[in-house]
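Project standup — Tuesday

K.O.: blocked on the structure for the chain from last sprint. Re-posting the sequence here as requested.
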Amino acid sequence: MAAPTNSDTVSPRPVDATAVADLRAALLGEVVAPGDDGYEQHRRVWNGSIDRRPVLIARCAGVDDVRIALRFAQEHQLPIAVRSGGHSFPGLSTCDDGLLVDLRPMSGIRIDPDARVAGVQAGVLLGELDAATQEHGLAVPAGIVSHTGLAGLTLGGGTGWLQRRYGLTVDSLSSADVVTAEGELVRASEDENPELFWGLRGGGGNFGVVTDFRFRLHSLGPQVMAGATFWPMDQAESVLRFHRAWLADCPDELMTIVVQRLAPPLPVVPAELVGRPVIAVAACYAGDVDDGERVLRPMREHGSPVLDVFGPKPFVAHQRFFDPSFRHGCWYYVRSCDVAELGDDVIDIVAEHGRRISSPLSSIALWQMGGAVARVGADETAFNGRDAGFTFNINGNTATADGFDAQRQWARDYWSALAPFHTSVYVNFLMEEGDARVRQAYGEAKYERLRALKRRYDPGNVFRLNQNIRPD
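H.V.: unblocked you, prediction finished:
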């Protein structure tokens, strides 16, 4: 059976003006309806290809608002979407004809530098958290695009520049507060509701609305050695083979992402290079800057690079490195898979399909895995695929609808060519691909364990506009 999508048929009860007025009066935050000032702004999400229209948007100011909104939606049989940063590729953080629970106004951050603990509300964006933690030379390992919402990223697992040294985002999570479908506020940690805590660390938004997270903090920077080196795409095979050998003995402080794309029109890119197909190795060394320079030097000097933008920089600046490539409002489509290794057959596929990129916004990102991610036991969290060697993120993107179908097909063809080498898949990189792919993201044993948890906390599948784990 396919996973439910925003196109599923629902039969909401009509919401009359009196009910809406009552909801406005009950919420400390704002209720936005079609026709209101701000409705068009607040219904929009990061992916411009998603054009959905909620019946109401509840911009929640706190836990009580979340409870009231959930009760209202269920009383009126409205499907519920939950949004933090709105960065879901398939647009799961909004809905048609339902209630959007918007957590963005809940953006409080509490830092205890002595205890190395951060308390973070669910509306916080990665860039906001990085700015607050880096004031103290500390960090939560989380993401690579600064305007991503922390909540959705965390609940799927949380990959990023610091993962090889400090693990996934969920590996630093110490507890979370969750509002269930019945409106109960539950704390989940290793000591309280440990099975729910297990499921939240990779199981997405299937069990309730997480309103507050607490994280362990780690030493970092504030300066890191980071950036990228670019080569012409016709050197792709050579770059990838050298990259594979170079990584064989790399320290956990090093995290790399290989990128294929057309060179972007950025100030650091020479005019004669803009629009040419390139392959780049982007990296962040989460340790001593001098050590990072030494470790990165062989890769930077390989072959005949056409551009090098490595150097010491604030970590918060490097967290914005990919922001121009993932602007709000562009049209995004992704296909993803994990592979065990970069064998010659995989490298040949990467080189061939990379040369077919035709949109200035399309790209592939080949994430290096391993390190601290792989040292956490496979069954310690719901996140799957800790033994993956690399994660492919194949992005068929355009600025508008023009050309989008062709880029989407390019991404599908690239992904299909890699099919013999697929192992697992990261749930945050799924589109709306159906139940079989959700099962693949977790593996059968974890999926069944998550189903049992779903039956306990959300037997009616109230939280279904997600990468859904059906209770039945």
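K.O.: great, moving the ticket to review. Confidence is low (pLDDT under 50) at residues 1-10. The domain at 109-219 is CATH 3.30.465.10 (Uridine Diphospho-n-acetylenolpyruvylglucosamine Reductase; domain 3).
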